[in-house]
């Protein structure tokens, strides 16, 4: 197959991953606002998709640069490496979507990339500083999200301690439009950039982009569009897990969870750290549930989700390595 045809095919597969990312992570953006019945699922996905798309106007491309040049050495990037990375990530996404598990598309992509690159050129190609920050974020992003959510719950409880419950509920139903928008914006800003970085690395490998590592505008727009389209398609199995199986949410809790999650995502995106939006919002939801009372959280569900987090990178890495070998047979 000619080089150009391979390049186009791999870019198309990368955008398919971005679409699936939006579909899989639609739950992260809309679960709280749907579970509190502030918006119906139909309108919620349109709301989230819009803010997913416009995120590129707010954030830079620091996360994309980390993905494209900060996890593995760009000099060893080949079509075979990218193919392995994408197949590893997509395979894990499909499995977790089918199982209704809120796993991390971010770590599936990183796992697939690392597994494929290591099979190609050995462990020396790994940029441990970039990979280490990402692995550290597996533990920090949900923890920080949880702590922020608890603090926001306590602050809000103190501010509105003398207010009538009906007035508090009415106010927070309106505020949830803002918090859900911020979270969707943070999700679009961090997650879409991961695919941008992969496509940019592929373009550099093909000599289609010259100079220092940067993300072409058409790649930015294509990735934001693919993610928004995926969000529109929804991810209802995971919405149920995120919105009701971990803990039941009120509008007051939903605002605190979304605000805490968006604060974590804004910080990580500005630092160029590719974090998991799934991990972040799950930690925040657990936080608001635990702030009410520890028994309000279904800890067995949370335990299953954490188990999926831990195995995502190694599982996707194994599939990525196998896909790399498979590509070499053609």
TrEMBL record:
<feature type="transmembrane region" description="Helical">
    <location>
        <begin position="107"/>
        <end position="128"/>
    </location>
</feature>
<feature type="transmembrane region" description="Helical">
    <location>
        <begin position="306"/>
        <end position="327"/>
    </location>
</feature>
<keyword id="KW-0813">Transport</keyword>
<keyword id="KW-0472">Membrane</keyword>
<feature type="transmembrane region" description="Helical">
    <location>
        <begin position="76"/>
        <end position="95"/>
    </location>
</feature>
<dbReference type="Pfam" id="PF01384">
    <property type="entry name" value="PHO4"/>
</dbReference>
<feature type="transmembrane region" description="Helical">
    <location>
        <begin position="45"/>
        <end position="64"/>
    </location>
</feature>
<protein>
    <submittedName>
        <fullName>Inorganic phosphate transporter</fullName>
    </submittedName>
</protein>
<keyword id="KW-1133">Transmembrane helix</keyword>
<feature type="transmembrane region" description="Helical">
    <location>
        <begin position="135"/>
        <end position="160"/>
    </location>
</feature>
<keyword id="KW-0812">Transmembrane</keyword>
<dbReference type="InterPro" id="IPR001204">
    <property type="entry name" value="Phos_transporter"/>
</dbReference>
<feature type="transmembrane region" description="Helical">
    <location>
        <begin position="260"/>
        <end position="286"/>
    </location>
</feature>
<feature type="transmembrane region" description="Helical">
    <location>
        <begin position="215"/>
        <end position="239"/>
    </location>
</feature>
């Amino acid at each position: 197959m000619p080089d150009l045809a391979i390049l186009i095919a791999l870019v198309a597969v990368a955008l398919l991953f971005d679409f699936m990312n939006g579909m899989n992570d639609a739950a992260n953006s809309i679960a709280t606002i749907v579970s509190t019945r502030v918006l119906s699922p139909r309108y919620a996905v349109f709301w989230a998709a819009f803010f997913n798309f416009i995120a590129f106007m707010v954030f830079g491309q620091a996360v994309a640069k980390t993905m494209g040049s900060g996890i593995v050495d760009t000099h060893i990037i080949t079509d075979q490496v990218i193919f392995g990375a994408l197949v590893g990530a997509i395979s894990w996404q499909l499995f977790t979507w089918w199982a209704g598990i809120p796993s991390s598309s971010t770590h599936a992509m990183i796992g697939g990339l690392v597994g494929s690159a290591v099979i190609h050129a050995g462990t020396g190609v790994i940029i441990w500083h970039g990979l280490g920050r990402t692995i550290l974020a597996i533990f920090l992003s949900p923890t920080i999200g949880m702590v922020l959510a608890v603090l926001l719950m306590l602050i809000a409880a103190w501010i509105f301690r003398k207010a009538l419950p009906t007035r508090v509920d009415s106010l927070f139903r309106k505020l949830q439009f803002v918090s859900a928008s911020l979270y969707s914006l943070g999700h679009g800003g961090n997650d879409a950039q991961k695919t941008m970085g992969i496509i940019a690395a592929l373009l550099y490998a093909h000599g289609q982009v010259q100079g220092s590592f940067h993300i072409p505008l058409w790649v930015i727009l294509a990735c934001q569009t693919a993610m928004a389209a995926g969000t529109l398609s929804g991810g209802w199995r995971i919405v149920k897990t995120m919105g009701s199986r971990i803990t039941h949410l009120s509008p007051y809790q939903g605002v605190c969870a979304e605000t805490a999650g968006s604060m974590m995502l804004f910080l990580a995106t500005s630092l160029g750290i590719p974090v998991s939006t799934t991990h972040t919002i799950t930690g925040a939801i657990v936080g608001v549930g635990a702030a009410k009372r520890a028994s309000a959280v279904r800890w067995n569900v949370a335990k299953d989700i954490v188990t999926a987090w831990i195995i995502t990178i190694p599982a996707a890495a194994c599939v990525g390595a196998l896909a790399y070998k498979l590509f070499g047979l053609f």
